[in-house]
Amino acid sequence: MNLKERLLLFSLLMGIVLVPINSTMISVALSPLADSLHVPLSAITWLVTVYLLVMASVQPLSGKMNDLWGRKRIFLSGVALFLVASFGCMIGHSLIAIIIFRALQAMGGAAMTPAASALIRVNWPEHRLDRTLSIMSLVLGLGAALGPILGAALLNLGSWRWLFAVNIPFAVMSFMVGYFVIPESRGKAAVVDWLGALFLLGSLLGGVLFVMKKIPFMWASALLWIVWMALFFRRQQTTQYPLIQLKLFRNIGFTVANLSILLSNFTMYATLLITPIVLENRFQVSLRSVGMYLFIFSLSMSILSGAGARLSLRMGPIGAIGTSFAAAVLSSLFFWVCLSMMKIDSIPLWVILFILGGAASGAGIVSMQTLSLKSVDKTDSGSASGVYSTFRYMGSILASVVIASYYEHTAVVFLGMAGMSLIGLMMVFASAKKIYSV
């Protein structure tokens, strides 16, 4: 790898690593943020929910925006937006202001990630592409793993504002280096379905408000949710360039893969959000220790995700996904018994719990993505990736909503995680025969 390639990769990685860090880092800061801003914990979870809502709605657009306006321009715009939004979060003095800047953070992140992947694909030769993409995947995994422990360390400096300030030097370095070394490139002419993205955001937001039961006239909100959903599906069926190609769901393998990542990500994200609350409030565990436990969870998930390809080769995608869900059922039940029902205060046991939970979440990820992509024609791989990403975020959004509603009833959360994983297990094996016969 020559100097220009090293600088190019440095710029891209310095930008995109902020996305997973800011997704998991906030998990250890929910209680301190709620205390500082004098709001209930159920309100502070909107910092998580809004970030995920915007990521889920904007990311499907990003690929087409890269083709339309240029990958360098979109990447640097995403970095700049993330930089400004992080500064806004840092100086924000109200929950509403921070929520708005978190939404802008998510918009920047949603623009950066697909652009970085595309820039790597067009700037590295074919024989070195896999190695470069693996470096990118490793950095993203490490970012997610280091987020909680970094968040705990920054909180120990005395203020939650450091969680957002830490983004600024990374974003500045990424932008300055990228401005000079990233070559501009475009893909085929594309049409961006802005209206479809608006309807998708409305559908997701309407669903969140209905499930949380936080607004008056709940049934009116349910009706509004149905209207948004109807508008979205109608738009996808009638437009020439849909945001999500609904025809892809005619393939049973594609449908199972996307529902699997939704259910799996629900369990993973619920673990990241509920366990810090339990450990801090019930066991008086320090923030540094909480961050370490979540680091163990994320590291275990990253390692098993990396080994997922070998697991898929040995057992097949369905076997690997089923094994992941079975392990998730067990780990969720263990969390319930140890942290909620019996309230066992044992550091070695907690370490084992988080290792098992992370392994269960990571074991099936590669197989889910592989099954999704192999279930469609190569010409539809871009659309399939966008759908997969959207379903992944939908699982995380559902988890944040459940935590906001039931964080005081941890048994409900842990049993809900086990229930979701059990549904996934039954779905995968019920559809195995149909998938393998296609």
UniProtKB/TrEMBL annotation:
How this chain sits in the membrane, per its record, is: Multi-pass membrane protein
- Tell me where in or outside the cell this protein is found: Cell membrane
State where it is primarily located: membrane
Chain segments annotated as transmembrane: 7-31, 43-62, 74-100, 106-124, 136-156, 162-182, 194-211, 217-233, 254-278, 290-311, 318-342, 348-366, 387-407, 413-432
Q: Name one GO cellular component term.
A: plasma membrane
List the keywords (alphabetical).
Answer: Membrane, Transmembrane, Transmembrane helix, Transport
Q: Which residues form a coiled coil?
A: none
The record's InterPro entries line, in alphabetical order, gives: MFS, MFS_dom, MFS_trans_sf
Q: Which GO terms describe its molecular function?
A: transmembrane transporter activity
Q: Which residues form the Major facilitator superfamily (MFS) profile domain?
A: 8-436
Specify the superkingdom. Bacteria
- Supply the name of the protein: Predicted arabinose efflux permease, MFS family
